[in-house]
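Morning run. Coffee first, then this:
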Amino acid sequence: MTSQKKSKTNAKTGKTKKSFEKEIAILKAKLPGVLKKVKKGTAVMTQEVEKAFEKMKPGIKLVAKESERQAKIGALKIQILGTTNKINRLLSELGKKLYTLINKKRVEVTDSTVKELTEKIKELEQENKKIGKKLEKI
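And here it is:
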């Protein structure tokens, strides 16, 4: 009676151990050539990347310079905005003081625009008083 061993096959791939070993041996034989090609390809790719970077350098410098310029412009515009806000607050204070003096008859107004603005403010103050009375009723 001769005993024959059946080779086991992998359930997922349907391949035997010997066929796997054969494929591994083939891959091992091909590996040095593949690695050589990969190294060569990597070197070529590195050179290409360096060339591309060299071509991009002037553009990168230009973008950096323009970014710096825009940042300076932005900072100066913020300073202008801050100063303008201070001016507007002072004008508002001046206007309030002038309006108070006009109402107390301590300043004589001859300018028609100032007179019109004073009248409009008085009308709005009356409107606020009416609204305030409505608010009290609620």
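The mean pLDDT is 88. Good start to the day.
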